[in-house]
Write a structure and sequence with these properties.
single chain, 75 residues, mainly alpha, 4 helices, 8% strand, globular
């Protein structure tokens, strides 16, 4: 998968606070957004998001990845 797209998708989920809203913003299916985040977590070997039926929260690793990724996406 495209790692740049994975990073964009992860950032969109965090910004939107929801997989569904991120999918709408990115014009992707909910399943595709979920797959990008899950694949990225599996590749990195860490959980980036705590997921419940009501909300998502960044893990400490997710916070670090978000900050590091923001610089890469900004460039």
């Amino acid at each position: 998968m495209d790692r740049f797209l994975e990073m964009q998708t992860f950032n969109a989920v965090v910004d939107a606070g929801s997989f569904v809203k991120a999918a709408e913003a990115l014009k992707m299916s909910n399943a595709a957004v979920s797959r990008y985040v899950v694949d990225m977590e599996n590749r990195l070997g860490v959980r980036l998001l705590h997921r419940t039926t009501r909300r998502i929260r960044l893990t400490p690793e997710g916070e670090t990845y978000l900050l590091d990724g923001a610089g890469i996406l900004g460039d």
